[in-house]
């Protein structure tokens, strides 16, 4: 009698370990489920489409009907028959960590769109006809990046055999994208390009939908979880990947090591702050030629400051220095319809316009990494390159005001205050 009771019980326990509920997991701590395991709630249909395109209600209804025709739920997994529109989140996402599992078939070709942009690639790594496209290198690469750029091809071949479930971990901060396939890193902090800009000059959008692509072969997805990354964690992640060789410029306590408008700045809560109603350039004691600098900054509503680049030690750095890189609450109502494009945050003031739309809201800390080499300046804000220009090629100036200092090859680094309590912290520099 005892064995008759035990056998079914043991079989039940064994079966339950491998039943759908065992892999239809609960989200890990901090994550939420994008797919509820039951239906398509939270998703809609959309084809390969520029996110800027306006979609009318009739067209969306048509795509949703197509979605329901080709996408189903079976055993707590999303199943697509290889046809139809892409499954698209209703919500837009910016900085994220995403976990997702998939299983596909021979000759299938799929992918994951991030911020509405293709794509983290999924395909048949044994299909010889596509070796010329890179299929033999495996899945997980940012396949729509330009040839030869970081991230386009996966670092290692990590795909499992057909019939087995593969797992992705994707981390994206700004355009900086890292991908792990089956616990192997295949993309390391690479910039995901904006596929929708044919010249690849405009950066990836700050936010967008996530799409699961269907492309000719059945694919299943399960355990789709997401975690939105906050500013503090994002800044820490970006700083950690900045590389070695940086030297701290600010001790967090006082203005030791700084010169210039020292009396117009103060240390508040471990940050350098321009005093309200004061300004001038607070600059380093050492001069620099080519260098990288990384820092965090916090803008009050409407706040205005700047980064002095190769500043000679006196005068208006925007003109007598190589440049002043704007530090400005560009989206404030205070500046609505009043700014020249060459005045927005990150711009080489009056000379080269930065891309806008990547600042965090006033009061949040932003991370910025600036590289100065020769006559070129590159500004990466919160993981997105917003300026990459050459001041030696500038021939037109805002208000027709020349910048005689733009060709300077050496000078001080500093902060150009404009009466607002803008703060800076975690400031470090690396001579090149």
Give the strand content: 35-45%
Mean pLDDT reading: 93
- Main beta sheet, described? 8 strands, antiparallel
Cα radius of gyration in angstroms = 26 Å
Low-confidence stretches: 1-23
CATH topology of the largest domain: Jelly Rolls
CATH H-level superfamily of the largest domain:
Exo-inulinase, domain 1
Number of discrete domains: 2
| First-to-last CA distance | 80 Å
What is the CATH C-level name of the largest domain?
Mainly Beta
Rough shape? elongated
What is the second-level CATH architecture of the largest domain? Sandwich
Helix proportion range? 10-25%
Count of helical stretches: 5
Please state the structural category: mainly beta
Summarize this structure briefly.
The chain is mainly β.
Question: How would you describe this protein?
Answer:
By secondary structure, this protein is mostly beta strands. The protein has 2 domains: 21-229, Exo-inulinase, domain 1 (Jelly Rolls, Sandwich), CATH 2.60.120.560; 236-431, Sandwich (Jelly Rolls). Strands 1, 3, 4, 6, 9, 10, 11 and 13 form an 8-stranded antiparallel sheet that branches. A hairpin with a 2-residue loop joins strand 23 (376-381) and strand 24. The N and C termini lie far apart (80 Å). The longest helix has 17 residues, at 2-18. The protein is 11% helix and 37% strand. It has helices spanning 2-18, 20-23, 57-70, 231-240, 317-320; strands at 32-33, 43-46, 71-74, 77-80, 86-89, 96-104, 109-114, 117-123, 166-173, 176-181, 184-191, 211-213, 219-228, 247-248, 258-260, 265-268, 271-274, 279-288, 291-298, 304-311, 323-328, 365-373, 376-381, 384-390, 411-418, 423-431.
